[in-house]
Amino acid sequence: MNEERITTLTNQAATLSAQRNTVTTSLKDIAAAMWHEGLHNVRDLGRRTGLSRATLYAALRERGIEPTNREK
User: Fold this and answer.
1) Gap between the Cα atoms of 55 and 8, Å rounded
2) How many CA atoms, within 13 angstroms, populate the side-chain half-sphere of residue 64?
3) Most buried residue, 4, 7, 19, 65, by most Cβ within 10 Å?
4) Burial of 14 (0-12, 13-18, 19+ CB in 10 A)
5) To 10 degrees, what angle do helices 53-62 and 42-49 make?
6) Where are the alpha helices (DSSP H) in the chain?
7) How far is residue 10 from each of residues 2, 4, 18, 19, 24, measured CA to CA in Å?
8) Dihedral sign computed on CA atoms, order 43, 29, 60, 71
9) Each residue of 24-67: pLDDT tens digit?
10) Residue 69, class by beta-carbon neighbours within 10 Å (0-12 exposed, 13-18 middle, 19+ buried)?
11) Short-list 39, 37, 31, CA closest to 57
């Protein structure tokens, strides 16, 4: 077993994981901005952002948006 190579790969995985978290947060922010611009369809938001419907519902609620209330 090559410990040095495993350590390098572990560090790369950690870096990519952090980047994924940043990208996911950005996509959630974009989805909320789209909602504020009038796109009140979670399915369409999912298609445009690549986020799951469950993730979108949670993300919108975290940002003070109730996705079942399309009037606002």
Assistant:
1) 31
2) 3
3) 65
4) exposed
5) 100
6) 3-36, 42-49, 53-62
7) 12, 10, 12, 14, 21
8) negative
9) 999 999 999 999 999 999 999 999 999 999 999 999 999 999 99
10) exposed
11) 31
Residue bearing tokens 């952002």: 49
Q: CA–CA separation, 19 vs 9, rounded Å? A: 15
Convert the pLDDT of each residue in 10-26 to its tens digit.
Answer: 999 999 999 999 999 99
Residues in the chain: 72
Read off the tokens for 4. Answer: 């040095």
Please report where in the chains the tokens 């796109």 appear, as a residue: 39
